[in-house]
């Protein structure tokens, strides 16, 4: 897939090629259907992941522009989301948030398992 991007401030355009792997033969779908499948897949991944990070962990509230800090916080958030998935997968994310908010000892127990 090729995509063109234009930076509004400078007017500079770039053309990028992206490659995707699939077990479906390339001629099984027309190009528009392939584009819809790719965008739908990655859009869903982004929406689910972003929602968890923002709603549960307030990621969008960070005002830091320090790349090392942001990378480290992202690693911590990813590890925590993994722990939450393993420990409390039968509950919804708001229920998990409420449960852990009222039980800090449970949070510490989960961290100690690492």
Could you characterize the architecture of this molecule?
By secondary structure, this protein is mainly alpha-helical. The chain has a domain at 45-114. It contains 4 helices and 2 strands; from the N terminus they run ββαααα. A two-stranded antiparallel sheet has the order 1-2. β1 (2-6) and β2 form a beta hairpin. The termini are far apart.
Please sum up the structure shown.
The protein is mainly alpha-helical and 114 residues long. It has a domain at 45-114. It has helices at 31-57, 67-87, 93-101, 104-112; strands spanning 2-6, 13-17.
Number of strands: 2
Tell me the structural class.
Answer: mainly alpha
Q: What Rg is obtained from the alpha carbons, in whole angstroms?
A: 20 Å
Quickly count the helices: 4
- Spans of at least 5 consecutive residues whose pLDDT stays below 50 are none
Silhouette = extended
As laid out across the biggest beta sheet, the strand order is 1-2
Task: Indicate the topology.
Elements: E1 2-6, E2 13-17, H1 31-57, H2 67-87, H3 93-101, H4 104-112
Antiparallel strand pairs: 1-2
Features of the shown structure:
about 110 residues; mainly alpha; two-stranded antiparallel ribbon; 2 strands
């Amino acid at each position: 897939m090729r995509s063109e991007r234009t930076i509004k401030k400078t007017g500079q355009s770039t053309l990028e090629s992206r490659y995707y792997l699939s077990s479906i033969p390339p001629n099984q779908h027309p190009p528009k259907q392939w584009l819809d499948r790719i965008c739908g897949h990655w859009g869903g991944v982004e929406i689910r992941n972003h929602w968890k990070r923002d709603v549960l962990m307030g990621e969008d509230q960070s005002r830091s522009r320090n790349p090392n800090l942001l990378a480290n916080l992202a690693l911590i958030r990813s590890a925590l989301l993994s722990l939450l998935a393993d420990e409390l997968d039968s509950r919804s994310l708001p229920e998990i948030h409420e449960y852990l908010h009222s039980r800090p000892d449970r949070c510490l127990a989960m961290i100690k398992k690492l």
